[in-house]
Amino acid sequence: MNALLEQFISESRECLQDIGEKLMQLEDAPGDKDLVNELFRLVHTLKGNSGLFEFPTMTRVLHAGEDLMDEVRNDRVAFSRQIADHLLDSMDFVGLLCDEIEASGGLLASGMGNSVRLAKGLRLLIPVKADLAAEPAGVAPPAPSPSEDLEGLDGIPEAVRMEAYGMDRPAGLHLVRYRPAADCFYQGADPLHQARQTPGLVWGWLCPREPWPSLEVMDAYRCVLDFQVLTAAPLEVLEEHYRYVLEQVKIVPVPGLRLVLPQGEPNGGPVYQDFVAEAMGFLTAGNLRGLAKVTQALLDRSNPDLWLSSALRWLVAVMVREPENLAALKALIGSLNTFQPPRLAAVSTAPQDPLLVVGCDPATAVTAHATIAIQRTILAIDDGSPWQRGRIQAAAATLSLCLKALGHQEGGMGTALTAALAAGQGAPVITWLDGLISSAPPTKQLPAPPLELLPVPLAEVPVPPVEGEVKFGRRAEDAQTGPKSLKVDQAKVDRLMNLIGEMVVSKNALPYLAGRAESVFGVRELSREIKAQYSVINRIAEEMQDAIMQVRMMPVSFVFQRFPRLVRDTSRKLGKEVNLVLVGEDTQADKNIIEALGDPLVHIVRNSLDHGFESPETRLAAGKPAAGTLTLRASQESDRVVIEVEDDGKGIDPLVIKRKAYEKGVIDEATLERISDHDAINLIFAPGLSTTDVVSDLSGRGVGMDVVRTAVEKVNGSLRLDSEQGKGTRLTLSLPLSMAVTNVMIIEADGQTFGLPMQSVIETVRVPRSRVMHIKNTQATVLRGRIVALKSLNEKLGIAAAPLANADGELAVLVVRAGHEQVGLIVDQFHETADVILKPMSGVLSGLPAYVGSALMGDGSVLMILNVMEIL
Amino acid sequence: MPIEFQKKAAVFLGIIGVDEAEELLEWLQKKPKARIDLSACTHLHPADLQVLMAAKPTISQWPEDVSLRAWLEPALTK
User: Is A36:A46 a contact under the CB 8 Å cutoff?
Assistant: First the structure.
């Protein structure tokens, strides 16, 4: 699931929660305008958000909710408990959809039907305005009664119906009645195509809604056709197929027997009383074979176009498909007397088979039933013959197999058989069999209601209402699948962070305590124990700190995601072709760092697009592909996150920069002479250089680069620029992963302790006084073949004391990084490094640039952290 | 041109889109006795179908596409 979707889900949940609350409040104070407005706003937001994704199921409901709230807001509808109920239900439904999206990354079509029903329910609460068209969009005409829904089935050719009736249809049959909107052609709809593509299509037909007008006044583009499709596809599949027009579609289940509609020429009148009587006789006796025989015989003798023949064909078909549905057969035979199609109103497609436990195919069932009947006859024979017992055993074995074929567990058969064998009679097994049939457990299918054998003109057939009340309530008793992420105010996390910081600091007090225990009180044992405890607390504190940092971590993609658009738009505007490549978007860093990264990156990218890339023609002339490539790469290097912005543009000309910097007084003449190309291009970050337009126009890079540098340095980051003329430029930003805890080196100068951020410390060395050279009035020393300028911290801080040397006459020199130079800082003494929570200077002290901030040490003292760049 | 309008007949070829309906309607108004050959038609937009249903021209050839024919024949022979 992508980050956007995740955010959508978490926001939606929040929104739903709010809506729920507001609805409750509104119930107590129905007149509160602010609440209504707020509610409308929430529903509106939610709808808007859902529209960003392909979730028509969700959007439909929310849209209806929004419309309803709009009416309420404009006082056209009074807020009522009913509205609240509907809205709450709908929001519960949306909540369920959210769960579904979260679980599967998308929505199944199954919710579509519910969505339409809910939306319809909501819309029904909006009163139709009189001036509106008679058939307002979204409000369906009053639902026709169920039997009307099944009208038109007689239009299907008998052969097709018979095939549909006889076919194996696990999903049942459905009739789709599709009434496209009159203006649907203007919306690009092709209802015929839609209908033709219906899955599981058995037969489809169409009919005009109204008589055809004369051609002169006809509007070819007003759809007046209704489409009907008989299909064997399951409801969900149909809803999925018609998902965009569900309001215009009615899907009605079709019981198989509803297809049994004899058709044909009546040929005079009922003259088949003989056959009817004979057939009824066979039926009553349960002799299906006999019935089939006479039916076939009559069928062979009759004209196939007759109504009679059609009815007989159906009789055969029903006998094959549902041989045990005697009532249906009876009705069919009876219909021969009346020439009225039998009203076979069974709701379930297959009548209940008491022995059928799990679905097995009908053919097997028929055979098994026949076999059981025969075995029963055999068992009933009681002629006292010597093979009676063998016969009973054989019959029982056959019965057992038949029952197994029907999916029945033949429990109790053994006992009955034993009894039968003991008695020498089949009766106990028969009794058991009868008991089994009568006490058959309820099977998967619902028991069929008794068949209504009514002549056609009588009452409507009850078909279960399709639009039942659907509840999506997630009440307290329901199992809650709570959201896995939780949204916490940043202030809370920050507080936790501060507390952890305090903890880190106070834990650092323990070593002092241990030291005191030993040196002041002379209890070495206690000192050791304190140290042991300290290491435990230290470990836990570090883990806690790490855990909290993880909470604050965000992927770089948060910043990166805005660039595709920015690059596209800017390059379009500049007439350049640039491909953006993003690498390592899931690299994580502290939220503050990521946020601080945004503006500088935009600046850098814009600069690169504006000045770095050449026009496509120039590029082609230079033998480069017309489209340039801009790469944004994020990676993690130990405790720092490194962002690289690389282009394959024209690079930076160091000569131009040098000259310009000299003109602007950023560098002096001597520097101009000796500065390396690499150092020269880094001059673009110098404040004096970047602020002038002239330079930016001339040299390209420069606009706001000072701003970039300042922003990056503010979060203790560093910048590096590499550029090769004609090949491209690479800007590397290195930022700490987190700014919460700063690692500092503690040093001493004239009895005072100071801290220096570790990232600026390169090394600590002891330099013998003899190795210190004086060049004019500055000091320097040679360190591994390099000259390093030495500066005294005391002097820089205005302390009058001279640097202290140790017993061997060596000076403590801290080699620090100052820009791209290395400088040796002479201090009195080195101390350990420590993790501190750096607090920026506030109030009057904030005006002291020499310090970046202060920190509280474990022993309660305050450590001032020096700003290396400032003091040098 | 998906519909070939001849002197007394229109031959429908392949898929007939929604745009043809207007022209078809005009043509049928002028030639109420025209014959329609649908044999090469594989699909036609309901707008065209409506026009045919309203005009009730003689269908000289039904579509070879069986599924389409099953839809059209009952509608156009009523």
Answer: no
The full length of chain B comes to 78
Mean pLDDT of B56-73: 87
Q: What is the mean pLDDT of chain A?
A: 77
Quickly state the pLDDT bin for A286 (edges 50, 70, 90): confident
Give A140 to chain B, closest Cα distance, Å: 22
Interface of A with B (CB under 8 A): 155, 180, 185, 190-193, 195-196, 201, 203-208, 212-213, 215-216, 218, 220-221, 223-225
Question: Do the Cβ atoms of A548 and A500 come closer than 8 Å?
Answer: yes
CA distance A44 to A69: 9
Q: Which residue of B has its CA nearest to A195?
A: B71
Report the alpha-carbon distance of residue A790 to residue A813 in Å, rounded. Answer: 8
> What is the per-residue pLDDT across A579-597, written as a single tens digit (0 to 9) for each?
888 898 888 888 888 888 8
User: How many inter-chain contacts (A to B, CB under 8 Å) are there?
Assistant: 72
C-alpha torsion A796→A801→A802→A804, nearest 10 = -110
The CB density around residue A237, as the number of other CB atoms within 10 Å, is 18
The model's pLDDT over A245-261, given as tens digits with 9 standing for 90+, comes to 877 888 888 877 777 77
CA distance A220 to chain B (A): 6
Stretch A763-767: mean pLDDT: 90
| Alpha-carbon gap, residue A291 to A320, rounded angstroms | 12
Contact predicate A417/A410, CB 8 Å: no
Residue A844 buriedness (CB in 10 A; 0-12 / 13-18 / 19+): exposed
H helices within A29-55, ranges in order?
Answer: 33-51
The DSSP code sequence of A364-394 is HHHHHHHHHHHHHHHHH-----TTHHHHHHH
Between B24 and A24, the more confident residue is B24
Q: Flag if B47 and A220 touch (Cβ within 8 Å).
A: yes
Cross-sheet strand order for the sheet of A640-647: A578-583, A628-637, A640-647, A728-736, A718-724
Given a contact cutoff of 8 angstroms between Cβ atoms, the answer to whether A180 and A249 are in contact is: no
User: Could you tell me the CA-to-CA distances from A8 to A510, A560, A594 in Å, in that order?
Assistant: 47, 19, 21
A223 → closest Cβ in B24, B46, B74 = B46
The pLDDT value given to residue A540: 92
**What pLDDT digit, counting tens, does each position of A339-383 carry?**
666 666 543 444 444 444 444 455 566 667 777 777 777 777 777
Q: Which helix (H) or strand (E) holds A298?
A: helix A288-301
Residue type, A430: I
The C-alpha atoms of residue A197 and residue A183 are separated, in whole angstroms, by 21
Chain A residue numbers touching B68 (CB-CB < 8 A)? 196
- The answer to whether the complex's ipTM is over 0.90 is yes
Q: How far is A206 from chain B (nearest CA, A)?
A: 7
pLDDT at position A344 is 61
Do residue B50 and residue A224 have CB atoms under 8 angstroms apart? yes
Q: Which residues of B touch A (CB under 8 A)?
A: 18, 21-22, 24-25, 28-29, 32, 43-51, 53-55, 67-68, 70-71, 74-75
Nearest CB among A193, A195, A220 relative to B51 is that of A220
Position A439 scores a pLDDT of: 57
Under DSSP, the state recorded for A760 is: G
Q: How far is residue A508's CA from residue A441's CA, in Å, rounded to a whole number?
A: 74
- pLDDT at position A271, please? 62
Contact B47 A223 (CB under 8 A): yes
Which residue type does A648 have? D
Q: What percentage of chain A carries pLDDT values higher than 90?
A: 3
CA-to-CA distance for A516 and A512, rounded, in angstroms?
6
Chain B hits for A215, CB-CB cut-off 8 Å, are 25, 28-29, 32, 51, 54-55
